[in-house]
User: What shape does this take?
Amino acid sequence: MNEDEARVNLNIDRVRARPLPLKDDHVTLAHGSGGKASAALVEHVFMDAYGNDVLSQAGDSGVVATAELVQEHGTHLAMSTDSYVVNPIEFPGGNIGELAINGTVNDLAMAGAQPKFLTAGFVLEEGLAVSTLKTIVASMREAADKAGVKIIAGDTKVVPRGAADKLFITTAGVGVVPSNRTVGAEQVREGDVIILSGPIADHGMAVMMARGDLAIQAPIESDTQAVNGMVEALFTAAPDTRWLRDATRGGVATVCNELARATAKAVVLQDEGIKVRELTRAACDILGIDPLYVANEGTFLAVVPADQAQAALDALHTSGAPEATICGRIDAQPAASVVLVTGFGGTRMVDMLVGDPLPRIC
Amino acid sequence: MNEDEARVNLNIDRVRARPLPLKDDHVTLAHGSGGKASAALVEHVFMDAYGNDVLSQAGDSGVVATAELVQEHGTHLAMSTDSYVVNPIEFPGGNIGELAINGTVNDLAMAGAQPKFLTAGFVLEEGLAVSTLKTIVASMREAADKAGVKIIAGDTKVVPRGAADKLFITTAGVGVVPSNRTVGAEQVREGDVIILSGPIADHGMAVMMARGDLAIQAPIESDTQAVNGMVEALFTAAPDTRWLRDATRGGVATVCNELARATAKAVVLQDEGIKVRELTRAACDILGIDPLYVANEGTFLAVVPADQAQAALDALHTSGAPEATICGRIDAQPAASVVLVTGFGGTRMVDMLVGDPLPRIC
Assistant: This one.
C-alpha cells in the first residue's frame, strides 16, 4: 500500500488533521486541475489565510472554496465565484461567456440556492476583436435569460498584448436558499443513492477537439447548460436531497473523491450507470484519458435518500435531464474511498486526479 | 414608466441619445483606461447586451457597470465586482490582493452599502512563486479584516506560462444598504457641495515608480485603503449625502465628468481644494501627467447638501480622512461639463480622459 492509498483510508478526522502536502515552490498547471495538487494549494495557501466559519465548511468541484450559505437579515444567501480561462474561447456547444454564466448559476444551484444576480469581470487582451467580444457578451445575456438570472454589475480591464490570452471572465453570483433545504456532505447517510444527471466527459473532449491540435476530429458538443431548473424539480420530488455537485474540473472521479473524503464513507459507482456518448468515449480511448476525470459543465451528481431515488430520477427525466441515471450508492467501506464496480462484477479504486490531462478546459 | 425610470431617462437623455462612438474593431489599452474609450466600449458592447433596469441605472468609476441596489426579500442588497491586473503586483503601500479587497469594499461603500461578504477569483500564471501567492493572499485577509468583511468563496485557475502575466484577481462583493440611504446622480442638486476625502494621484504614481522603467525614483506610496468606515461616519454626519464615487481609473477628472454627464449639470472644481502631495506632483510634472487623471484607490468624492457640508467634513477629519477638503460645487452652467477654477481665478474645462497614460495601475 503506498502513501496515497493509506491516506484515502484515513477517517475524516485524520484527513482534516493531515492536509495534502504542498510540495511545489511554484504554481504549476496541476494546481489548476481540480485534483490533488489543487486541493493542496487551496488548503495551504487559501484556507490558511482566509479560514472562517463559512469558508471552512465549503467544498466545491472548483478550487478555493465554493458557494456557501450566509444568514443575514433573515435571508439565507449563497454566494459563489468562478474564473474562466478556457482555450479556445469558442467551441462546439458554447463559448467562454456562456460557460461563465452557467458555471456560476450551477455552483449556486449545487448549494441548494435559487440563483438571482450575477456580476462579470473581464480581463481583455489588447487586440481582441470587438466583434468577438460582442458575440460572447450576447451569449452571456442569452444564457442569463435562460437561467432566469440578471447580470447586475461588471468590470473590464485591458492588458497589453501578450499579458493575457484573449479574454478571461470571472463571474460571481448571489442566490437565495429556501429555508427547508440543507445540502452538504454531512447530510449523507449509508444506503443513500447517487444520481448522475446525464452523459459525462462531453465538455472536456469538445474543448480538446476545438483546439485542433489533435490528429483526430469528432463533432462532440459541450454539455454547458444551467441546471438550476432541474435542481428545483429535484427538490420538489426529493425534498431530502442530501448533496449536490456539478462534475466540472477533475470530472466525476474527483468530485466523488471529495465526497468520500468529506464523509469518510465509500462512494460505490456502478459502471453501467455512467453514460458516455459513443464519440466521446472513442475520443477518450484514442487519447488514453479516462472519461471519469474529464470535465462537464452542465452535468451533476445528486445524493438522495434511497426511498426518494425513483421520484428524483423521474423528476430529472422530465425537467431537462432525460438521460439521468442511478449511478451508485453510499456504503460504509472502504471508508473515504471511491470504487467503481464494472459490468463484469469486478471493482477498481478510483483515485483523485494527479496532474492535469486537460488544462484550460474552463 | 415609473417615476425613477422617467427621471433617469430625463437626466441622461442627451447622453443616451448620442452615445459615444465606438470606432475600433479591436480592443485597445484605451478601452481599459476608464475614460472615453472605456465608456464607448461599455455602451456599445455591454449595455446593449445586458441592459436591464438595474444595470441601466448604474454608474461607476470602473467600467461596465457598478454596485447597484437590488431589493429582494425585504433586504436592500448591493453587489459589485472588479478585476485587478496591476503591474507590478507589489508596489509601495500595497499589492494586488490588498487592492482587490479595498476596491470592491469601496465600490459597495460608494453605493451607500455596508460591505459584508466578498468572493475572489484568481487567474495564476504557471511558474508564479507560491511564496508570492501566500504573501498576497495573507494581505487580502488582513485587508478584509480591517474593512470588516469576510471572504466566503473563491476560485483558482492556472494558465500556461505566457498566457497571463503572473496573477489577476477578480473580487465581487455583497453589502446591505440601510433603508434611509439613497445615493445617485439623480439626487444631486444645484448648490450642493463636493468633498474630496484626501490628496490625489498617489496610487497611480506609486505604481508607475514601482515599475522601475522611469528615469526618476520617488518614495510615493499608494493610497489603497478601505473607506467604508469613513462613509459610515459621513452618513451619520450628513444623512442626505447625494452621491459618492471613488476616483479610481481616470482619476478625479473622469468621475467628475461622469457626474456632469449623468446630471446634465456643471461640476465646478476649485484647484485650491484639490491636494496633491509634493513628491506626487513633482513626479506628475516630470512625466507631463495631470494629477486629476491619475488613479486613486482609497480616495473618494462626495456630493452633500450645502448645509451638511461642514458636518460632513468634520466627520471625515475624525474618521480616517484628516486631509479631506471641500473641492467644488454643483452649478447649472456649463451643463454636463466640468470646469476647474484656478488659484488665479481663471477657469479651464476638464474633459474626459482620452487614451490611457498609465495602463495597468489597478
Remarks:
- Chain B has a mean pLDDT of 86.
- The CA atoms of residues 199 and 340 of chain B lie 16 Å apart.
- The first helix of chain B runs from residue 3 to 17.
- Chain B has two domains: 3-176, 185-349.
